[in-house]
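pinned: reference chain
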Amino acid sequence: MPEFETYVDVDVDDFVLSCKKREIKELVEFLVQQGHISPSAIPSHESQGVLESFFMEKMDKLREKYYRLSQEDEQILEDLFKKYV
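pinned: its structure tokens
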């Protein structure tokens, strides 16, 4: 019996954009299980209050600006981290 081998090159963007919300949730759960995403990186808006949600949005914006932080800013954040962890 002959054997056939196939190869399909799918662009990640095309794949994700074609997924339904349920499928994206499954994909995220799979990535967490495989260790590619930290569970703490996934927002759980159902259990967050309004103030906590605003705080998390600010932290996300700050994370995006990491390379623009001065050493003093980074030290302040490190001190806060040490204080609460």
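why pinned: The chain is about 55% helix and 0% strand. The two ends are 62 Å apart (CA to CA).
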